[in-house]
Design brief:
10% strand; mainly alpha
Length: 175
């Protein structure tokens, strides 16, 4: 069986502390390393579209919502699971690029509605296809059954740690 860098760490602990079970490091160490690799790959892909990860998340959230009238800035903040300040910064950049509009809701002048422009919609439609193709490439070492099993196992772990879906608020997790 092929070995990775995490195997070495766990084996070193086994030799240094035979009384100590370091096996959780095998799981979480690999998750951590995978997270860094995946983030690097996603950053590279999003850059091809002139986007940062957070900008992609906002565009994808608006596109998934399927509401041509847009979403409130507050709803975007909740769906993105970031602070309203972070959403404001992302929106400022996306407005400047011409990908979204940010307008006062005529029904409630205290509410700001964010919507995709046609340019933004075209961009996210292209970017999300490339994103899923990239994810497929990253998972190519696993067959579909293995991917499904891994997804189910990770879901169990996430739920055990309190990461439950809250309607649209958690929808961004899959992007």
């Amino acid at each position: 069986m092929a070995r990775d860098a995490v195997d070495l760490v766990v084996e070193q602990w086994a030799r240094a502390r035979p009384d100590f079970d370091a096996s959780p490091m095998g799981v979480l160490g690999r998750l951590s390393r995978l997270s860094r690799i995946v983030e690097r790959e996603l950053k590279s892909l999003f850059a091809e579209f002139g986007l940062e990860r957070g900008e992609f998340d906002v565009l994808a959230t608006l596109r998934r919502a399927g509401a041509p009238e847009g979403m409130t800035a507050g709803a975007l903040a909740r769906a993105s699971m970031v602070t309203s300040g972070a959403v404001t910064n992302r929106l400022d950049r996306l407005v400047a690029k011409g990908y979204v509009t940010r307008d006062v809701d005529p029904a409630n002048r205290r509410t700001v509605v964010v919507a995709l422009t046609s340019t933004g919609r075209d961009l996210i439609d292209r970017a999300v296809v490339a994103h899923v193709d990239n994810e497929r490439r990253l998972l190519a070492a696993l067959d579909r059954h293995q991917q499904d099993d891994l997804a189910a196992t990770l879901r169990t772990l996430l739920l055990s740690l309190g990461d439950e879906a809250d309607g649209a608020d958690a929808a961004d997790a899959a992007d």
